[in-house]
Amino acid sequence: MLNDTVSPDFFRKDAAFDELYPEHIRELSQMHWTPIDIARKASDFLAVPNARVLDIGSGVGKFCITAGFYHPETAFYGIEQRGELFSFAEIAKEEVNLSNVAFIHGNLTELRFDDYDHFYFYNPFYENIEPDSRIDYTIRTSFGLYDHYSRLIYQMLDEKPSDTRLVTFHGPDKQVPPSYRLVNNSSYSRVLKMWIKE
Ligand SMILES: C[S@@+](CC[C@H](N)C(=O)[O-])C[C@H]1O[C@@H](n2cnc3c(N)ncnc32)[C@H](O)[C@@H]1O
Predict the structure, then answer these.
(1) What are the CA-CA distances from residue 177 to residues 50, 149, 192, 198 (Å)?
(2) Is there an atom of ligand 1 within 6 Å of 124 CB?
(3) How far is the CA of 39 from the centre of ligand 1 (A)?
(4) Domain ranges within the chain, ordered by starting residue
(5) CA 109 from chain center: how many Å?
(6) pTM > 0.90
(7) Environment class of residue 112 by beta-carbon count within 10 Å: exposed (0-12), middle (13-18) or buried (19+)?
């Protein structure tokens, strides 16, 4: 069942959705924000009714807002370290008018992961090891932070109960613990991977 209080026009094309943001944020879309068809496929897999899904590094909220539109029975949360991106996510959420989406401003190291059931992961730490992929210069990046964040998420995922779901988009498989089984069924299977904890 779709969210019938929300205009579907935002979700017809990436260009229409990206109109929610100012020009300099739209320019980052192709490289940094999840395309709508990917967000839809990923959320079809993650959206267990009444579950709480976390986008690890939510940027301007494109994954959570699209997922929340298609799956009103599931709650989608995003954590984002950059204040500016968090603010644009909040503005877009208000504009689209979704009650099952929430954003948190902070670093994922401060989060209580017990509060979330399933996870979306769009290679958020990559800019620490690939300077050409930086979003901006407002945060510190380093190889050390890449390792630190990757280890933290790996351990968190490994401690989750059986049946925890995970979607990775453009993520290295080595960031996923072997306790997760790949259950891909998507036409984008080289870059979009769906996993379930054994
Ligand atoms: C590739 S973007 C993806 C954005 C969003 N998930 C989407 O798919 O549209 C990754 C985001 O993760 C954020 N991020 C990276 N490391 C983070 C951390 N340690 N804590 C919070 N956010 C982080 C970055 O600031 C960036 O906005």
Answers:
(1) 25, 14, 17, 11
(2) yes
(3) 15
(4) 8-197
(5) 16
(6) yes
(7) exposed
Answer positive or negative: Cα dihedral of 68, 21, 60, 183: positive
Indicate if ligand 1 lies below 6 Å from the C-beta of 18.
Answer: no
3 state SS of 160: coil
Alpha-carbon dihedral angle through residues 183, 191, 186, 31, given to the nearest 10 degrees: 140
d(CA 71, CA 1): 7
Nearest residue (CA) to ligand 1, atom 4: 59
Give whole-number Cα distances, 17 to 29, 81, 197, in Å: 10, 22, 33
The kind and range of the H/E element at 20 are none
- Encode pLDDT of 59-110 as tens digits: 999 999 999 999 999 999 999 999 999 999 999 999 999 999 999 999 999 9
Specify the CATH superfamily of domain 8-197.
Answer: Vaccinia Virus protein VP39 (3.40.50.150)
- Identify which of 80, 107, 130, 152 to mutate to test ligand 1's pocket (most ligand atoms within 8 A of the CB): 80
Going by the DSSP 8-state scheme, the letter that residue 126 receives in this structure is: G
Q: Contact 52/75 with Cβ under 8 angstroms?
A: yes
Give tens-digit pLDDT for 9-68.
Answer: 899 999 999 999 999 999 999 999 999 999 999 999 999 999 999 999 999 999 999 999
Quick one: tokens of 134? 């930086």
